[in-house]
């Protein structure tokens, strides 16, 4: 028995579908191209939402103007972000200086002749 001829399938894509696909592709490309700016916008939005509560509290309870309260809160956050690594660095420096001081004192004691703890 002979094989039947293959059926022909025709696919049509409307102009509207093509425009939609191109529009979505353009939007995705623009979003990827501007992702750093979009990231900063989302970070700014998050910080504005989070810092609104202490600013409102200072404004209502302490009686500060909103701009001054916002500046105080932002300076407090920046100060906290700087203070944490700074204190850790200071602790490391103090620890290193203490070790260096001990080594220098031991070296000085060893260099003085006639001391009972000096190496002969």
Structure explained in plain terms:
The chain has 120 residues and is mostly helical. The protein has helices at 15-33, 35-62, 66-111. Helix 2 (35-62) crosses helix 3. The longest helix has 46 residues, at 66-111. The relative contact order is 0.04. The mean pLDDT is 88.
Give the proportion of residues in helices.
over 70%
Classify the beta-strand content into a percent band.
under 5%
Q: How many strand elements?
A: 0
Instruction: Spell out the helices and strands N to C.
Output: HHH
How much is the radius of gyration in Å? 35 Å
pLDDT < 50 runs, ≥5 residues: none
Quick recap of the structure?
This protein is an all-alpha fold. It has helices spanning about 15-35, 35-60, 65-110.
Structure characteristics:
about 120 residues, elongated
Write the layout of secondary structure elements.
Layout: H1 15-33, H2 35-62, H3 66-111
Helix pairs in contact: 2-3
């Amino acid at each position: 028995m002979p094989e039947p001829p293959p059926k022909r399938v025709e696919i049509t894509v409307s102009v509207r579908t093509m425009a939609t696909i191109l529009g979505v592709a353009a939007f995705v490309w623009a979003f990827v191209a501007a992702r750093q700016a979009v990231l900063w916008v989302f970070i700014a939005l998050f910080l504005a939402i989070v810092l609104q509560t202490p600013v409102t509290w200072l404004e209502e309870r302490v009686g500060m103007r909103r701009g001054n309260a916002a500046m105080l809160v932002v300076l407090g956050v920046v100060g906290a972000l700087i203070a944490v690594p700074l204190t850790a660095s200071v602790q490391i420096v103090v620890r290193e200086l203490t070790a260096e001081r001990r080594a220098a004192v031991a070296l000085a004691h060893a260099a003085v002749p006639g001391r009972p703890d000096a190496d002969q």
